[in-house]
Design goal:
Length: about 425
């Protein structure tokens, strides 16, 4: 059966652990996998999850000892749910499907995605699209950016607020576009790279300043949204030294960009940990769509399992034919050798036929017996009975075709052969 492994850390299970682990950079994670001789993997890293998928068992490596481990069908089902937005902080978000696709493409680019890994991820992306096509789970304000904007929009005097976004990436861009729909009194983009800050500010009609001028931005704005990939606090006590008045800080970064210790009267901080109750309301509002999405995932999981089983069966059959052809070649060579030594042709053919049957059947019979000894249970026994029943049908069809031929045994002999144990 399909071997598939997952190590996962996510926001919901343990925020503090997730925040700590998520500071591990991709290069460190890849080095650990390579040292463990893991040749195939996909690393999925988002603001609320860090996951590694592989067809090789990497789960015993030290770096994954704190992770939630899943295997085989459970791991595949989890990936399908992730791609469908069912495991997202904001249920149904679109962004996660793009992130899954990009993680898979990065694996291909790095030469770390083999046949089975590619099949699983392509199917996961397909399931994610199907869920969004057949349900309304992604309709409305479902992204984290939209949810953050909704919080601001619900505040008294949102139109009079001066807002600053610290960050210039995709999430910052999405938030900026949502915020300009409020619209606020002013919007400022603060970034480390001047060109990126200028481009984003121009695209939404905002002003910009550099990260070196962050303290100025903190003094001049009422609401500050931090969303960067920095692994250190950008806003701490030093940056807040001359900042007065009431301020709302929204930290959507992981790890956090805002030091929780800057809190004082008039300072309110909303981060990924305490935004969860708001996101859970979104989940409740989409109860019907979540139910429909779950059904689609289960159906597609069932279809996928059957497809994998068909592939594995085809591989198994191909191996049988390949082995049989090798035995055929060896036996024909032996036949020619025996005849060249003066052995009568009829004797040599008979010896070859007997030897060929034994050589082909022996490893399969032994493997079947060993499997029954190791895995003998009700399900296996039922499978064996059904296999035997199907084989007898084919045997009997074949015997009917050759019935009456003088070269074959009499009917009693045929019955004896069918009932003979290997």
């Amino acid at each position: 059966m399909l071997k598939f492994y997952l190590a996962s850390w996510n926001f919901r299970d343990n925020y503090k652990l997730f925040e700590s682990v998520s500071q591990t950079d991709r290069q460190t994670m890849e080095s650990a996998l390579q040292e463990g001789k893991i040749g195939e993997y996909v690393i999925l890293s988002t603001c609320n999850r860090l996951e590694v998928y592989s067809t090789e068992d990497f789960t015993a490596l030290d770096i994954f000892k704190t992770a939630d481990i899943m295997r085989d069908a459970d791991a595949v089902n989890h990936l399908f749910r992730v791609a469908s937005g069912l495991e997202s902080m904001s249920v149904g978000e679109q962004e996660i499907l793009r992130q899954v696709k990009e993680a898979y493409e990065q694996s291909i680019k790095s030469g770390k995605s083999g046949k089975i890994l590619s099949i699983v991820f392509r199917k996961a992306i397909s399931v994610g699209k199907k869920v969004r096509d057949e349900t309304d789970i992604s309709k409305g304000k479902v992204s984290l950016a939209a949810q953050a904007t909704q919080i601001i929009e619900s505040l008294p005097g949102a139109h009079e607020s001066r807002i600053m976004i610290v960050g210039t990436g995709k999430m910052a861009s999405a938030i900026a576009k949502y915020i300009m729909k409020i619209p606020p009194s002013s919007l400022t983009i603060c970034g480390r790279n001047e060109e990126h800050a200028r481009q984003l500010s121009n695209s939404v009609g905002a002003s910009y300043l550099l990260l070196s001028d962050l303290p100025k931005g903190l003094r001049e704005n009422d609401i500050i949204i931090a969303v960067t990939s920095s692994r250190n606090y950008l806003i701490g006590r030093n940056e807040m030294e001359n900042v007065n008045g009431d301020k709302l800080f929204i930290d959507l970064s992981n790890p956090r960009n805002i030091d929780p210790d800057i809190g004082r009267p008039g300072i309110r901080i909303i981060d990924l940990e305490n935004i969860q109750p708001i996101l859970e309301e979104n989940m409740k509002a989409k109860k019907r769509e979540v139910l429909l999405a779950n059904r689609i995932v289960l159906r597609e999981m069932d279809n996928f399992s059957r497809k994998i089983l068909e592939m594995e069966t085809e591989d198994f059959i191909s191996d049988i034919f390949l082995f049989s052809k090798l035995m055929e070649k060896e036996s024909s060579d032996q036949l020619l050798h025996e005849v060249s030594k003066g052995v009568p042709l009829e004797t040599a053919v008979e010896d070859m036929a007997n030897s060929l049957v034994n050589k082909i059947l022996a490893p399969h019979v032994l493997a079947l017996k060993e499997l029954m000894r190791e895995k003998g249970d009700g399900k296996m026994e039922e499978t064996l009975r059904r296999l035997h029943s199907q084989l007898r049908i084919h045997y009997e069809d074949y015997l009917r075709k050759i019935e009456g031929r003088q070269a074959f045994q009499s009917q009693p002999d045929q019955t004896r052969l069918l009932n003979q144990k290997p």
